[in-house]
Protein: Carbohydrate ABC transporter permease
Organism: Amycolatopsis panacis
Amino acid sequence: MRPRRRAGAWVYVVLAGVLAGSIFPLYWSFAVSSRDNSAIGETSPLLLPGGHFFENVQRVFDTVDFWQAIGNSLIVASTVMVSNVVLSTVAGYAFARLRFPGRNSLFLLVAGSAMVPAQLGVIPLFLVINDLGWYGRLEAVIVPGLVSAFGVFWMRQACEGAVSADLIDAATVDGASVLRTFWHVAVPALRPHAAVLAMITFLGAWNDYFWPLAVLDSSDSPTVQVVLSQLASGYYTDYALMLTGATLGVLPVIVLFLLLGRYLVRSIASGVRYG
């Protein structure tokens, strides 16, 4: 085996620059949210935090029902995340390791649906939601996102690279059922990839703005992104108030990344094949 080469100093410089560029927008948002709105017009850049953060947090909760918005977003994003991981893992395993008539055609149909712009289905989907009586209810946001073509494609490719066909055949010869083989052979190998899908799905559901704005009542059942847009309304723009809400809204995503970030590294290291 070839000896492992140590990274040079320039690699650490580049990585430090990328890290600083990624973290700076979050830090700057926090710095602005800890000042009053008059500080935005100062000629000197706002690089140091002030002492008004908790005051601005209180103003956010006094201006909009932020607790309800966080609760609704957590319900929507968590339900969509769990459903996508479960259904996409089952479907991906079936497309990758099971043999049944029409498998390739069905997979091409699923993959092809991902190429259709979501905006084309907004009006028909809205009419269906309205006919079901779900307008203004969280079901209108949850049900359309229970499974995605991207999730099925991701887990199918993960199965191709991480789940050995020989292990599947060996388990079948030993008398294991399809469900038992899936649970004891495929699921342990797919955990890092499922965790990455969970992060991507949660982030997408949490940051979704257009569809919740269209089908939810912004006063009775808002999500975080909808109430953040309400903070920007008014006769003048209170940037300190807006960025305080944005800082609070990004905290759950950061917590999720801290919990599942190691699985992202494992998924990249395992080398999932995309073809």
Remarks:
- The chain has one domain: 64-270.
